[in-house]
Amino acid sequence: MQTRLLGADEGAIAAAARVINEGGLVAMPTETVYGLAADATNGVAVAGIFEAKGRPRFNPLIVHVADIAAARALGRFTQAAEKLAQAFWPGPLTLILRRQPDSPISELVTAGLPTLAIRVPAQPVAQALLAACGRPLAAPSANRSGHVSPTTAAHVEADLAGRIDMILDGGSCEVGIESTVIDVSGDGALVLRPGAISAAAAAGILADLAIAPAMAGQQEPDAPKSPGQLASHYAPNARLRLNVTTPEPGEAVLAFGPVVPPHCGPMINLSETGDLREAAAKLFAALRRLDAEGCRSIAVFPIPREGLGEAINDRLLRAAAPRP
C-alpha cells in the first residue's frame, strides 16, 4: 500500500473523507496527538486499524464525533457526563459511556464491552474531517502499538508508511499528550487515564471524582475499558530511567527546568523555564528524537506531578515499564 501525505486544505480533507467512507485509513491531527481514523460503524475498516498498528483487539478504541448531540446518539449520558461535556468539549477529554441500544458502532471498537469511549476534538482539521465524513470516527493514536505517540505527520509516516492510505499534515499537535479519560458509565466518575485536563480541573466540575488504581500503571487490567491503561505503553526503544538527578556517563538526558548537571551525552530539555504545558507538548517528539539518535538509555529528570505533570509522569512510567 502506498501512503499519500497531504496537507490539510479543503481538497485534502475531501479526499480523506472519500478514503474513510470507502473503508480506508487516514491519519489526522488532533489537539492531543495524531489519530488513525476509520469509519467506526464499519467493522472491516476498524479491523484495519488493529492490523496497521499491531494493536491487541482486547484494547478498545476512542470514537471521535463532531459535537455533544452526536455523542448522545451513541452513548447514554449521566448527569456527571453532561457536566463534564459541557465544561470541556470540544477538547482533550474522553468520556466512557454506556452504549445506546441502537448504537451503530462496531463491536471491534468497544472490544465487546457494553461501554463506549467518546471524544469531541477541538482541532480544526479533525472537526473538518468529521463534518466531511458525516459519521463517527474510531481514531486511536497513529503509531505502532505500544510505541511513542505521534505529534507530527513525520512521526506517523515513520511508523505507518505503507500500512495506511493517507496522512493529513496539520502541523505539530498543540497539546502533545493524549486526552484525559473519565468513566461516567455508572454512578459517579472515575479517572482511568490522566491527560491534558488535570484531575484537579475535572474535580472542579465534579466534587466526587475518583482516581482508578491502574491509572499510574500500578496494575495492568485484564480487560481495559479505555486506551492507555496497559502497563507498558508509549515506549521508545531506549531504556528509560525515571527521576534521575545524576546521569550515567554517555547516557542521554531528558531534562526539565533551568538546572542541568554536567553530562557528556545528548540532552533535550522539555522546558528550561519549568513550564508543564511546554513539556507535555514536547515529550513524545523528544523521546522519538533521542531514539532516532540511537540512544540506549535515557535519564529522565524529576517532573512535578501537579496539573499536566500528572499525565506526563503517567506516560513516562508506562514508557519505562517492562516490555511484554
Condensed summary:
The protein has two domains: 4-76 and 89-176, DHBP synthase (Alpha-Beta Complex); 239-320, no CATH class. 30% of the residues lie in helices and 18% in strands.
Can you describe this structure?
This protein has 324 residues and is α/β, with parallel strands linked by helices. The chain has 2 domains: 4-76 and 89-176, DHBP synthase (Alpha-Beta Complex); 239-320, no CATH class. Helix content is 30%, strand content 18%. It contains 10 helices and 16 strands. It has helices spanning 10-21, 43-53, 68-74, 79-88, 107-110, 124-133, 153-160, 199-203, 276-292, 308-320, and strands at residues 4-6, 26-28, 35-39, 62-64, 75-76, 93-99, 115-119, 137-138, 166-168, 180-183, 189-193, 209-211, 239-241, 252-255, 267-269, 297-300. Strands 1, 2, 3, 4, 5, 6, 7, 8, 9, 10, 11 and 12 form a 12-stranded mixed β-sheet that branches. Strands 13-16-14-15 form a 4-stranded parallel β-sheet, covered by helices on one side. β10 and β11 form a beta hairpin. α1 (10-21) packs across α6. It is globular.
Question: Level of helix content?
Answer: 25-40%
Radius of gyration: 19 Å
CATH superfamily of the largest domain: DHBP synthase
User: Shape, please?
Assistant: globular
Number of separate strands: 16
Strand content: 15-25%
CATH architecture tag of the largest domain: Alpha-Beta Complex
CATH class of the largest domain equals Alpha Beta
